[in-house]
Design a protein that fits this description.
Blueprint lengths: L3 H19 L9 H29 L8 H25 L10 H11 L7 H28 L10 H11 L5 H17 L4 H29 L7 H23 L3 H10 L1 H8 L1 H19 L18 H24 L3 H9 L29
């Protein structure tokens, strides 16, 4: 059973990433409010992805206590295969410049490390998430200091040592220490909050408080160090706050508002839900489109989009952003209506042993196109 609100959350995360990766084509004259909005979308996308991966896994594991050892092992193996596929595709997309810091391999590493927590009691996830949230900024800072003072000078982004350090602690925007707590919190939300209006409201309020706290902490950190560091306590609070506000806000409107509001919101967010059902496909699609665009821009020649010095022409820059977004939206809508499950989702489903090879060419089924109501409130 698909949950429409989770599809919308995934679709919103993809939408935010597309905007963040194409805003470079705009000039510096956009209103300040629009610049702030773009920054929020950029900061929310990756933690929201990590959070919803955890929620989705927790939802799939909601009756795991009744499973036998064989079924648990199969789920874990499938999970690990998915993680490895994400790492492989992420590295593949990073070979050619696209203007995108590809997140897929970071998410794959996060899933691999999270595997031991999938079937553990909730208390373990609470403890692990708390430890990571408390220690991650310290570890990130120590790793940065070491890299600056040790003469660490990698010769290739694909050197195994460089990849490992980048994935875990030295990533400029993404890193295991920042993403793993989001996934663990997502696992907890699936057990405690999913299906409860009151608890969803508490999550939204908690996210808003964290956002407020992050503004104060980030200003203090900037005053102390002169720069806003990615992976700091303020950055961590901002990421988690944005992810929780977006996740819970969408659920409050999609699942727990009045009947008329729910119907309107479902219709309004249908394009996002379509993208959310095939988030892996749409992410790869938009990166490939940007790779083609940048292959032309890097030639240094004047073209329709850019003039001398890589100064983007307007309104061509705006039109490029809109075109990429519309292609993603239309592809997801048409594919879902006609064929159901996304193309790369079919491939990863077969590779991870969850579906037989015949599903690669199968037609749509009702579950890929039906919006489900909110779940019953969790107990406890």
């Amino acid at each position: 059973m698909r949950l429409n609100s989770l599809d919308v959350v995934r679709g919103f995360a993809i939408f935010a990433m597309v905007i963040a990766h194409t805003v470079v084509f705009l000039d510096d004259r956009e209103p300040r409010a629009l610049g702030v909005l773009f920054q929020f979308l950029n900061d929310a996308a990756s933690p929201l992805f990590a959070l919803v991966i955890g929620v989705t896994a927790g939802y799939q594991l909601r009756e795991a206590a009744l499973w036998d050892a064989r079924r648990k092992s199969f789920f874990a193996i499938s999970w690990v295969i998915k993680a490895i596929v994400l790492i492989f595709v992420g590295l593949l997309l990073s070979i050619n410049f696209s203007g995108v810091l590809v997140v897929l391999d970071f998410l794959g590493v996060m899933m691999l490390v999270a595997t031991p927590f999938l079937f553990l009691p909730a208390a373990w996830s609470v403890g692990a998430a708390s430890v990571f949230l408390a220690l991650a900024p310290i570890v990130n800072g120590a790793a940065r200091d070491w890299a600056l003072t040790s003469g660490f000078s990698p010769t290739s982004r694909f050197d195994p040592t460089v990849l490992l350090l980048d994935w875990t602690v030295l990533g400029s925007a993404y890193r295991l220490t920042s993403l793993l707590p989001m996934l663990l919190i997502g696992l907890l939300l699936a057990r405690w909050q999913l299906g409860s209006a009151r608890r969803t409201a508490w999550v939204f309020g908690g996210g808003a408080v964290l956002l407020g706290v992050s503004l104060v902490v980030r200003r203090w950190e900037e005053a102390m160090t002169g720069v806003a560091q990615s992976g700091s306590y303020g950055d961590e609070a901002r990421d988690l706050g944005l992810a929780l506000v977006a996740y819970a806000g969408i659920q409050l409107l999609s699942d727990f508002s009045g009947a008329r509001m729910r119907a309107w919101f479902t219709r309004f967010t249908r394009p996002l839900a379509d993208m959310g059902t095939m988030a892996f496909t749409i992410y790869c699609l938009h990166v490939l489109m940007l790779t083609v665009i940048w292959s032309q821009l890097l030639r240094g020649e004047e073209n329709w989009l850019a003039g001398p010095g890589l100064i983007y022409r307007q309104p061509q820059g705006v039109l490029t952003m809109i075109a990429i977004l519309l292609i993603c939206l239309l592809f997801a809508a048409v594919w879902r209506r006609l064929l159901g499950v996304g193309p790369l989702e079919r491939v990863i489903g077969v590779l991870s042993l969850r579906h037989p090879p015949g599903t690669l060419l199968a037609g749509p089924v009702a579950s890929t196109r039906r919006s489900e109501p909110a779940l019953q409130a969790p107990r406890g």
